[in-house]
């Protein structure tokens, strides 16, 4: 009796929490529901992944939006309303550690060879579908005689004057790595981050910071509206502005490579379909196409030879990128995000 | 015509069910599930102490309160004459003023906030005008700082004040002012001794509702504020989305909820229907 009540309560809770997803009709056998970042991303993926996948398998793909909190709520309430999660590697790691994810069926893959995916970009329950990076972007107009080419130069407000921006905790993680680089810490010695030292270095540039940005949209807007003359920004966001003719540029020096990854809810209704979609998406040819349009880096090592010289040059995670940049350490952030967030909230309100 | 009590409850039932199902129940679940995750009472208390005394939340509460007070005062100063004009206006003038106040609310807060960002930016319309007229030598920072937050929030909250005051002013019998004038009172005296006291409960209600809404603001300060303009709702969002520390978010939510409910208790005393028609 109590079990029945508990079950009902769980059902009710799940329904209440996942209200936007409840509209899902009685399960169409061949549908995979995938959480995506949304926007242009969906358009590109529909063209190169979802629609060809449907033609090949008969399984339809429905992209939906869901914040990390919503994913967590779904899992906790025991009512998982989507199958495949396509999100930042950090958030996916949270879900993985909570035991929400099913193993990726590498041994059953039919389109992609698991060994083609770089080893650091796959684990038992998670596999990366692209990498992106945070670069030092700047206005060419503000620095006609040479722009800052490193974070140490970014920190040099005397030589490179003007308002700046950096990423806030609310963007996923505060850009403490750049502060440590500016202070002379080598790229391969960044982690574990010395948070106190990074914040002391941040103190020095703070008067020049117009704003710590929280969303990619805001960072792009601030740079294109000339609210700031330089700052950290995601390469894709910046490249779109440059391609439209904005007088902006960036340096490939000391950029931070970040990872997007996929995982499958172990209680998902269509685990098998989600496995197939992940397998299909990660093929070298497919990745080369969407990576080109999204200006992201492919995770399949066989994709790079399929891209043009120019496309390769601007893809994060490529041979040049891995030499001049560094990978953000998700594990460290996952272990320390709580503590850093508190320190950051205190510091930022000083 | 007075409504009998059982009928009143019947009429209220749909609204109450909706509130219970979509607000009280989820928030109760969230608070309970999040906080019980911490374990025993002593562990909850330790975490509460840690969260509430960490410095971040106390600073944020000061920021939130300060912004709330400034915005509420500005809204009152701008809203009082507006409401007065509205309460005296007739015919198409009345309709025009009302439309100007209400119509922008058909667009979302985000869109309206972005509109302000276009106006207030370093290269925005206002700075271009100021520079063009030679009033300033270089662009004034009106955005991504406290000024920006206050301008944006004042704009968004103005109608709540205007409409609350309007209801109170409309209820003032104009013959009372005529009587005062007839007995030789100057216009200033009529306002100070008759009109203002009669609308005071509206002012209190308007101030409280504006302040309650202001301290829960998220979108406007998140978009228009500077590095240190962290309001409490922004801290809560960060705990929910970024660190996914729900117990900590729940504890902060309780702080905001307690403050809001306390103010609401005061508000409901001043917003009694019997008071408004006095």
TrEMBL record, chain A:
Keyword Metal-binding among record annotations: no
Pfam families, per the entry: SBP_bac_8 (PF13416)
Domain of life of the source: Bacteria
Signal peptide range in chain numbering: 1-28
Compartment(s): Periplasm
Main location: periplasm
CDD domains the record matches: PBP2_polyamine_RpCGA009
Keywords of the record: Periplasm, Signal, Transport
TM helices/strands, residue ranges: none
Similarity comment text for this entry: Belongs to the bacterial solute-binding protein 1 family.
The protein, known as: ABC transporter substrate-binding protein
Protein species of origin: Roseomonas populi
TrEMBL record, chain B:
Transmembrane segments: 57-79, 91-108, 148-169, 203-225, 246-267
Keyword presence, Transcription: no
Protein topology in the membrane: Multi-pass membrane protein
Keywords (A to Z) from UniProt: Cell membrane, Membrane, Transmembrane, Transmembrane helix, Transport
PROSITE patterns according to UniProt: ABC_TM1 (PS50928)
Cellular compartments annotated: Cell membrane
SUPFAM superfamilies: MetI-like (SSF161098)
Domain ABC transmembrane type-1: 61-267
Pfam families registered for this protein in UniProt: BPD_transp_1
Protein family: Belongs to the binding-protein-dependent transport system permease family. CysTW subfamily.
Protein name: ABC transporter permease
Species this chain originates from: Roseomonas populi
């Amino acid at each position: 009796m109590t079990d029945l009540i508990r079950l009902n309560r769980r059902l009710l809770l799940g329904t209440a929490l996942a209200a936007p997803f409840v509209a899902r009709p009685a399960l169409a056998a061949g549908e995979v529901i995938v959480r995506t970042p949304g926007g242009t991303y969906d358009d590109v993926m529909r063209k190169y992944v979802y629609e060809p996948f449907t033609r090949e398998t008969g399984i339809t793909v429905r992209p939906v939006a869901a914040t990390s909190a919503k994913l967590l709520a779904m899992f906790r309430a025991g009512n998982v309303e989507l199958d495949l999660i396509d999100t930042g590697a950090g958030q996916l790691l949270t879900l993985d550690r909570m035991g929400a994810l099913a193993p990726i069926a590498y041994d059953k893959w039919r389109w992609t060879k698991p060994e083609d995916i770089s080893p650091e970009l796959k684990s038992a329950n998670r596999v990366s579908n692209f990498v992106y990076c945070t670069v030092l972007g700047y206005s060419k107009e503000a620095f006609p005689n040479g722009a800052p080419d490193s974070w140490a130069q970014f920190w040099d407000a005397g030589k490179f004057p003007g308002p700046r921006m950096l990423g806030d905790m609310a963007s996923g993680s505060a850009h403490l790595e750049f502060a440590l680089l500016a202070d002379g810490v080598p790229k391969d010695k960044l982690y574990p981050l010395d948070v106190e030292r990074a914040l002391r270095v941040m103190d020095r540039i703070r008067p020049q910071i117009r704003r710590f940005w929280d969303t990619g949209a805001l960072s792009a807007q601030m740079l294109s509206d000339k609210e700031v003359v330089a700052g950290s920004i995601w390469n894709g966001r910046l490249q779109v502005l440059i391609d439209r003719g904005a007088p902006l540029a960036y340096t490939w020096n000391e950029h931070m490579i970040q990872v997007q990854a996929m995982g499958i809810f172990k209680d998902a209704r269509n685990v098998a379909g989600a496995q197939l979609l992940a397998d299909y998406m990660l093929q070298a040819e497919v990745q080369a196409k969407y990576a080109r349009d999204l200006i992201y880096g492919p995770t399949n090592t066989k994709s790079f030879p399929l891209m043009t010289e120019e496309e390769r040059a601007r893809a994060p995670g490529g041979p040049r990128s891995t030499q001049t940049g560094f990978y953000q350490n998700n594990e460290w952030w996952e272990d320390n995000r709580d503590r850093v967030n508190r320190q950051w909230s205190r510091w930022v309100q000083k | 015509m007075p409504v009998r009590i059982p009928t009143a409850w019947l009429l209220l039932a749909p609204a109450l069910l909706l509130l219970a199902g979509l607000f009280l129940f989820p928030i109760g679940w969230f608070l309970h599930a999040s906080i019980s995750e911490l374990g025993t009472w002593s562990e909850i208390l330790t975490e509460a102490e840690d969260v509430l005394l960490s410095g971040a939340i106390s600073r944020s509460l000061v920021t939130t309160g300060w912004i709330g007070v400034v915005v509420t005062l500005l809204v009152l100063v701008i809203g009082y004459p507006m409401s007065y004009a509205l309460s005296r206006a007739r015919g198409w003038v009345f309709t025009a003023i009302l439309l100007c106040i209400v119509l922008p609310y058909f667009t979302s807060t985000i869109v309206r906030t972005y509109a302000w960002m276009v106006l207030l930016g370093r290269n925005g319309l206002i700075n271009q005008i100021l520079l063009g007229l030679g009033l300033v030598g270089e662009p004034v920072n009106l955005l991504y700082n406290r000024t920006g937050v206050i301008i944006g929030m004042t704009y968004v909250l103005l109608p709540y004040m205007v409409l609350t005051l309007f209801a109170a002013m409309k209820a003032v019998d104009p013959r009372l002012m005529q009587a005062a004038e007839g007995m030789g009172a100057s216009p200033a005296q009529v306002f100070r001794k008759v009109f203002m006291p009669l609308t005071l409960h509206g002012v209190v209600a308007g101030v409280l509702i504006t302040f309650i809404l202001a301290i829960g603001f998220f979108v406007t300060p998140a978009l228009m504020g500077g590095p240190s303009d962290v309001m409490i709702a922004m801290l809560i969002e960060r705990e929910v989305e970024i660190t996914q520390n729900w117990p900590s978010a729940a504890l902060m939510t309780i702080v905001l909820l307690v403050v809001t409910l306390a103010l609401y208790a005061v508000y409901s005393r001043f917003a009694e229907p019997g008071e408004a028609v006095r």
